[in-house]
Amino acid sequence: MIxxxxxxxxxxxxxxxxxLILSFILPVAFFTIFAYVFGSMGxxxxxxxxxxxxDQDRSAVSQRLVRGLRAEPSLEVSxxxxxxxxxxxxxxxxxATAEQAVKxxxxxxxxxxxxxxxxxxxxxxxxxxxPQFVILHDxxxxxxxxxxxxxxxxVVMTSLSDIMADQGMKYLDQSVGGLMPGQRNxxxxxxxxxxxxxxxxxxxxxxxxxxxxxxxxxxxxxxxGQRKKNPMVSFYAAGIGVMFLLFTASGAAGSLIDxxxxxxxxxxxxxxxxxxxxxxxxxxxxxxxxxxQLTVMxxxxxxxxxxxxFSHIPGFVVMTGATAFxxxxxxxxxxxLSRTRQQQAAIAxxxxxxxxxLGGSMFPRFLMPDFMQKLGLFxxxxxAIDGYTKVFWRDEPVWHLLPQVEVLIGSGIxxxxxxxxxxxxxxxx
Length: 429
Fold this sequence. Notes:
By secondary structure, the protein is an alpha/beta fold. The chain has helices spanning about 1-15, 15-40, 60-70, 95-105, 140-160, 160-175, 180-205, 235-255, 255-260, 265-270, 275-305, 315-335, 340-360, 370-375, 380-390, 400-420, and strands spanning about 50-55, 75-80, 110-115, 130-135, 215-220. It has 16 helices and five strands.
């Protein structure tokens, strides 16, 4: 009898495709995403960070440091803006243009190599001023600044280890009152052998490692959102809000299936209401509902968490309208594709949770590998979050939202047209 009950349960599960998807496919999909994102955390792999490097010294020593930073696999270094088509090669970054690039989101961090670094790359002793590196960073990506700081210290020691040893010996010579001639000759011979070894290893394509330790001074300076109160609230509101908008739009559009099953859809179509008009009405209802839902969430953020909403009303309205339209069209497509309400709910849950994980609603996309960040661009979540970040975090004007709005509106139109094609099955032959 017990075995019969078990067998009956599995037969019921096999017939219910929605439950089958949620039981097996969704856990595997989530496991795969989280494994790709966090699977390498226990290894020595470091997140690859895009870094702007400004060489304010322009000496042979600073150029060696720039080459060392370029060779660091954890960093994606640029010293000048990307070339745009057939235009001339842009001028190298300056401190001002690098700061502006970080503010615009072109890169999360910029390293400024100080003037005079080549003349005194290292300074030993507590009473001596050390070279002051400045790292400009955007704290919406807190990982980037820390990675850049750590990698800068590493590369300084690995790419300039011979200079560091020479400077260290000079400090030792000064601090002890002068070396004996024999000691000086022995040191010079040792340094000559060490420099020859470094040159040989570099010709072989190998960068020698040095002992750990920090002998340079680094100042981290946040250049975005310094005067904002609780600035990350907008990120979380956008991420969580878009995810729940997808669920809301999917559920609201699913009423179309209920009307088809109850016969109400046939009566509406027979009353000279075209399927296009019906779908457009459903789309408008879902979009208005989504717009109101997201507005309430941001109003709550403004009232409780000091989100600066009212000074960003134009950008908020544009992004919320485009996002609401896109997610509503997504819900209409799911409704027109699904045969039953249970099937629609199962497919919607699977797609929405996977899209939210890839698109940044559950954790920031900058924590993901490069290919997953690019994959996330196929989701509404990523484009919506990027747009809201421009509005609330970077204080960019409305016309800078054009890429995000174009993608969301264009996707919404394409999905609505597909929904209209699949909805033909409900029209009378």
